[in-house]
Amino acid sequence: MKIERKYMAHYLNAAFSDADSEYCRLGADLEEYSPELSANVEKKTNILGQTSVVIDSYQKQGEVSPYYAEKDDPLFEKLQAIIDGDLVLDQLKTDMVEVKLWGDEGDGAYPAVKEEVYVEIVSYGGDTTGYQIPFNVHYTGVKTAGTFNVSTKTFTPTPAA
Q1: pTM over 0.70
Q2: How many other C-beta atoms are found inside a 10 Å radius of the C-beta of residue 99?
Q3: Could you state, in order of their start, the residue ranges of all structural domains in the chain?
Q4: Domain 5-157 is found in CATH 2.60.120
C-alpha cells in the first residue's frame, strides 16, 4: 500500500531556541517539500577497470516556497524578525522534526527524527496573491530519534540504550 504524502509531516521550531519550542507544520501553501540530499560522491576506477564508489556525506536542504505570511503565526513572526534584524549565524539555528504519521505508537505519538537546521530567507514581498517569505532549510546532520505528539506538538527523545 502506498503512503500518501500528507503522512510525512515536517514541523519547524519557530521559537529558534534549544530551551523552548513552538512547532509549526509546513505545508499549508506548499505543493511540494522534498529535502534534497546532495550526496558527496567519489568514484575511482583502478587499472583493472574496477570502479569503487564512496559516499561520505550529504548536504541536505529543503526549499519552502511559497510561504505566505499570516498575522499572529509564530513562524511568520520569526521570519519577519530575521528580515528586520538582518539576523545571521546561530540566530538562524533551530530544529525541524520529521514525523512519520503512518506509524502511530499510541497516545498520539508518532516516530520522528529531530534535526538541527539553519533557516535562510531567500526573498520577501511577492505578488498580489499575498506577502511571501520563501526560505531554505539547511540541515546540519545533528539528529535525535524519538516520538512526536501531534496534538501537544512535543518531541520526546528515545531513551539511550
Answers
A1: yes
A2: 24
A3: 5-157
A4: no
